[in-house]
Amino acid sequence: MKIKSIELFGIRLPFITPFIVSYHTYNDMPSIIVKIETDDGLIGYGEGTPDEHVTGEEWKSTYEMIKNILAPELIGENPFNIEKIHEKMNKKIYGAPTAKAAIDIACYDLMGKAANQPVYNLLGGKYRDSLKIAKVISILESNEMASIAKEAIANGYKELKLKVGTDKQKDVERIRAVREAVGSGIPIRVDANQGWMYSSDALYVLQRVKDCDIDWIEQPVLADDMDALLEVKEKTLIPVMIDEGLHGNKEMREVISKRAADKINIKLMKCGGLFPATKLVHQAEMAGLTCQIGSMVESSVASSAGLHLATAKKNILSNELTGPLMFSKDIGNLTYEPPHITIPDTPGLGIVINEAMLQELTKMSAKIV
To answer: 184: how many CB neighbours lie within 10 A of its CB?
Structure first.
């Protein structure tokens, strides 16, 4: 089996309501769909969702990078040779994890279809029958976030994820308002997305919400300041998760050696796909750290890839793969039943692509043969 062609679709996925985090407000999410066809007629789909604030990759440049640099290098390669494929991509260009993730995910989809197995069986088998999902709440005024949280619990959600990271005092009010709205017993995760920047700011907030029973605080300081993250971890009893500060092996070694975090948030777009993500899971397990699979807010394609990994790996205790619930239009058929989702046992990613919707959302396209 050899790669015969690689087709690219630059799409924009519209949100139902704007998605607001500390560094940006999104009305739609730019993404790149990769369609790989083999010489025996199999088709695999992958996705790359770049975020210039996190990996330094931008939508159009990532599209051009796949089109002009990575895709031509892989024509004629066997998708099963995933280690070799990553080596070829890494030799061709440094970094660019989102571009590489799009290729990686499509290769796993092809491997699963060729083997007539769901992707999770290629990653260790089914450890979990279903996965819990949390309600992710954008940055809004405290009363609005509290209202959304209360409604989410009424609709069956059992866990909440709060985006914060703007004004410190307002963030304190947001967290306290949500806790008061939903009462005790509902797990609440808080994500500052680097918005507090410095350890002193992070500790200011955490000191004032320590009675709110937060499950963990995610990326409270700037991504490249591992020492500040360590200081927060040492001065609070709230577990600390690293997200934007962890891309691949280099940062993983520093987290482990410094004991700078309690938990790690693995995103396929940060590390380069399922193959390198699996390595991070194993390193974390060795070091006594637990994992979450996060998301750049992706379509059914990349979301399903992350869910396959979470299904297979014991040490992945949570996930944040709720992109399809947030879009008014999606190209795939990943089906959620909040507060759970079950990955289909069909071959590959198990996603059926709506070709008409893919064409509707496409803003640029190319084919490499």
So the answer is: 7
Helix (H) or strand (E) holding 277: helix 274-287
Using alpha carbons only, how large is the chain's radius of gyration in Å?
Answer: 20
Across the range 206-233, mean pLDDT stands at 98
Do you find a cis peptide bond into 220, omega within 30 degrees of 0?
Answer: no
CA distance 244 to 271: 11
Catalytic one among 47, 57, 191, 201? 191
Contacts 24+ apart (CB under 8 A), 15-19: 15/326, 15/327, 15/328, 16/326, 16/327, 16/328, 17/138, 18/138, 19/138, 19/297, 19/326
Nearest to 140 by CA among 131, 149, 132: 149
Mean pLDDT of 20-45: 97
From 67, 135, 267, 270, the catalytic residue: 267
Active site residue 218: yes
Specify the DSSP class assigned to residue 167: -
Summarised one tens digit per residue, pLDDT across range 95-138 is 999 999 999 999 999 999 999 999 999 999 999 999 999 999 99
Verdict on whether the full-model pTM lies above 0.90: yes
